[in-house]
Structure of Protein arginine methyltransferase NDUFAF7:
Amino acid sequence: MYRLRSTWPNAHHRNEGQRYERISSIKRESMIRNCLMSLDNIIQRHFLGIKDLFKAPHMSLLRVSRASKILPFPYRCLSTTETSKDLSNYLKAKISLSGPITVADYMRTVLTHPTSGYYMNKDVFGVAGDFITSPEISQIFGEVFRQFPQMKDVVTLNLVEVSSKMSSLQYEKLVGPHQLSDSANKATPKLDSNNSLAYNHGISKFNIPVNWYYKLEDVPSTFTCYIAHEFFDVLPVHKFQKTERGWREVLVDLNLDLSSPNDFKFTVSKSPTPALVIFQVDENDNRDHIEMSFESGAIIETLSHRIAENGGFALIADYGHNGEKMDTLRGFFKHQVQSDVFLNPGFADLTADVDFKYISKVASNYVDIFGPTTQGSFLQNMGIGVRLKVLLQNVKSELHKDLISGCKMLIDPEQMGERYKFMSFLQKTEKDYTPAGFYSLGN
């Protein structure tokens, strides 16, 4: 067997390449005992607890609420100045003790570890971050987007933004303040000191109360508009591979190849895993590799059930496909796509395309579904061309170039126009109604 030499704190070696050392089986029992003692010390000194986990800044509460049930493991206290090696060492220790972990487990840890996860230590959005979202590319996106939630028979509504953090798609850009109920809601994770279902409170620039919740079940039950913009693509996915023995789950294991720059590698499970038990494949699906986010399915089921029971609608916008893609898991580091997901753990975002066919299948029992349609088609159906012409007539000429290039990036098939998809949920009704954006303006 192999001993992991640089797992625990303050373990430094001159030759970092020599990370593994073959040892005799006689030392095996002693090594495991010492390793468990080290783990016990970490539990006693550094266990943060679920309550403190939720206090971590900028973490998606929906994601955290699921992670807390699956990952109640101890966290080593790290400063924000420590490198990704700290997270690697933690993962190596975990795998050394319990064996290969799921890809979903790896993603969840790398993204939401409370002290060294990607979303925990810096602002990852915008020019200074690793990627820019649609609202930051052009103001036209928000102006067109806010035309979507218009229901003639509804006087007030709750607006719930399901987001991975304080997103650039601000609720006040989506609807006018006269349309909001007493509270606009965001499912993001800020806790306050009381025990109310709303974990934090604030006031918008329109003097509208804003409440934060860590799970959808706590949001008041009423007619609601749900917005999920670039949220589901960061939820953990399980990966499955078709083999001669049938479907098997792809796991993450230690990489013992000293010539490789990575500490981890993919491996195919030798026997069925718990996730494989609930994994279902359509008999007409010809893919030999499938990614599936069970967390996304659980959230979609809750959201669509709330719409069915209380009324309302939802708009989902994300990188995605309609059940035809296979291996889409990738990293984003400094605005560049990183195909190797094991590089820079904790410093690179991990994302996988949303399977809208899977989402549609989960929600179909509760709501009417429209889409998916491409972002280019959605925005053009919403009148982005008309809005661009109006803006060009009312702004200084030096701003024309930025407005035109920003609009092109949003709708061009070679840029974001095809890769982003939009889907809408509506409460099942007897009326034949198609939401704006999902039919041509010429119809």
